[in-house]
Amino acid sequence: MMYCIGLLILALGIILNTKTGLGVSPIISIPYSISKIWNINLGNATMCIYILCVAGQAVLRGKKFHLFDLLQIPMSIIFSRIINIFNDMIVINCNNLIINLLLLAAAIMLTGIGAYITVKMKIVPNAADGLTQALSERIKKGLGLAKNITDISCVIITIIIGLVCAGKIVGIGLGTLAAVIGVGRAIALTNMLFEKKMIVLVE
Q: Where are the membrane-spanning stretches (predicted)?
């Protein structure tokens, strides 16, 4: 139940981030730019990118990649459907910078909380988080550095896709930078406040 709640909160945070108009979070920036440039459903684009994340894990882990890790694919399909639901439900047309910044702060906090819950439940990781973890194991560095590498790579790929295919940068902005910095802090804050309760719940 907590895992499902975490997925809902994570999807809500991601969609709120896209609705502010200030730039989307790094990991969703690639499917977001694809959906905008070629008018493709955001959930479907996200699902395809997440499946590529699972393939990336298989390459990085090699023989250490297990069949259990493939469960991230059906999880990605479910997650992409949730994203579609929230994307259709939430309509925000606001040109007030202060309100949009408040929405961005809420989006970052929700994304951090959702990511924290899904990881702590130790069931099936989000495909993007799984890729970050696989990269961390491969380069033998901390998750923080691996997360930075993943985020920066996503931003660079998004910029290239936008410039080559649309002649402009799509989806990258203040909200992207805020998400790079803020989501990690939101996860740390959530961990500080609820770590003991989560440990008890998991056990």
A: 39-60, 98-119, 148-170
